Amino acid sequence: MWSGRRHRTRRTYREQFERSAVPQAVCDGRARLVAVNAALARLLGRRAAVLTGRPVSELSHPTDPGDADVALARLLAGEVTTTQAERILEGPGGRPLPTLASVTALTDGASVVYQDLSRLRATQLEASRLEEELRDAALHDALTGLANRALLFDRLGHALTRETTSTAVLVVDLDHFRGINDERGNAIGDEVLVAVADRLRAAVRPSDTIGRLGGDEFVVVCEDADPAAGQEIAHRVLAALGPAVPTTAGSVRVGASIGVAVTPTAVGGSLLRHAETATYAAKAAGRGRVQLFDAGVAELARQRFELGVELARAVEADELHLHYQPIIDLGTGAVVGAEALARWDHPRLGPVPPDRFVAVAEAEGLTAALDRWVVCRALGEAARLLPPTAYVAVNLSARTLTDGQLRDWIRDAAGRAGLPPERVVLEVTESATMADPHTSARVLEDLCGNGFRIAIDDFGTGHSSLAYLRRLPVALLKVDRSFVAELTTDPGARAITASVVDLARTIGLTVVAEGVETVEQRAVLQALGATSGQGWLWSRAVAPAEAGDTFSRRYDV
């Protein structure tokens, strides 16, 4: 029984040996070939039967150094049980074939397996290249090739260990980049990002590290840079981003707001946060500029944060209130509507200017909550304060326009107040609609379909095109007060206002002029064909207690 099993096992091994795609041979104790498989015979270009019985050394090319013969002799002498050595075999036509011979001792000889060294080395080279690519991909942004967050923090940490030098960090945040993505598409947006990366490389020093944190935010780590050097590099970056960027869909302009922070600071994370804080300050100051982080910026950031916490509490506790400014028909002097304006009397600071707490709401992500409070309060109060035919206008921020429940809660608020949707005007700025144009258009169409009217506020100061305006369901255009203020002194302001009025008349919109303060401004607006206005010429914004007389009277025309 046992001899039969051994016979079957030997037959199985023999079949595996013959069918193997790996070149193999078996030699006896005198280093003579007793078996050569088909793969080795093909590699050498000779028949296995011719090779059998010959010394293993006869497989070698004349240039073989003989290391494999020495290794085989040691194994057959019993010094080792396995060994490896390079052997140059002689292939067809006398061609040298570098191989790695792996030898294993058998009971009465040895087994030899040959690996093609050229292929093995190519495989190792490819594996090394692939490993390098994977390591590079793990540390670089796939789109721009710039350093990613991991590599940035590594470089920043290294820079901060050099206590004898200062390090500057620049946070470069592109201005209005989302509008490029939405208007031109993500592919064009990617082209812009790649071009920005190239311009950053050209603007900074060779020793600086540039990275992309994601989206349209870039970071530059500058070793050996004091505040002056950091700002100088930032201004070079700003200048480099000034010219229009050519893309496959035409040229686009992209600016940036840049924050700069310079050591000493405790850890890299706080240095980056300081630079981001300076970037927010640059944006708040009007965008397209460089802001160095200093004690003043830090104090403003602290105050903004604290005020944001108190504002959130005030909104939740219903501690704000509304004032209303009437909107007057320029032809009849009748009140046709009123704009609801939020007011906040802080228990410690007193009245907080609306511009200040609205800016805080935007910076701290509170605009959606503030908008919802204003809408619900304004619709409830307008039903009892305004004349039966007058509308109430409320402002909606860009963040609110992305609220998936917007239509439902505005409709519910109007229903609870008993106010027909046509008496509700929802004001959005050009900039708000451009933050996400496609979503804005869809949301505004939805609101318009439910009977609410849409107004574009501060028209002429934003970034939307007239072609885009025609795609929005707009009922009113509000001319910005900056144009109205110069109507009687600046021909340019008058020309712009005339163009807006003509545009509105052409596409069937109502024009409301903001900030009217003099009878001369009113006369020019009437002559241009504007239909209504609001401003201190007629009334300031008043509290609900004063609304009765303000809204019931007819003003002189």
UniProtKB/TrEMBL annotation:
Residues 165-295 form the GGDEF domain. Signal peptide: none annotated. Residues 304-555 form the EAL domain. Residues 9-79 form the PAS domain. It comes from the Bacteria. InterPro entries: Biofilm_reg_signaling, EAL_dom, EAL_sf, GGDEF_dom, Nucleotide_cyclase, PAS, PAS-like_dom_sf, PAS_4. NCBIfam families: GGDEF (TIGR00254), sensory_box (TIGR00229). PANTHER family: BIOFILM ARCHITECTURE MAINTENANCE PROTEIN MBAA (PTHR44757:SF2), DIGUANYLATE CYCLASE DGCP (PTHR44757). This is EAL domain-containing protein. It comes from Nocardioides aquiterrae.
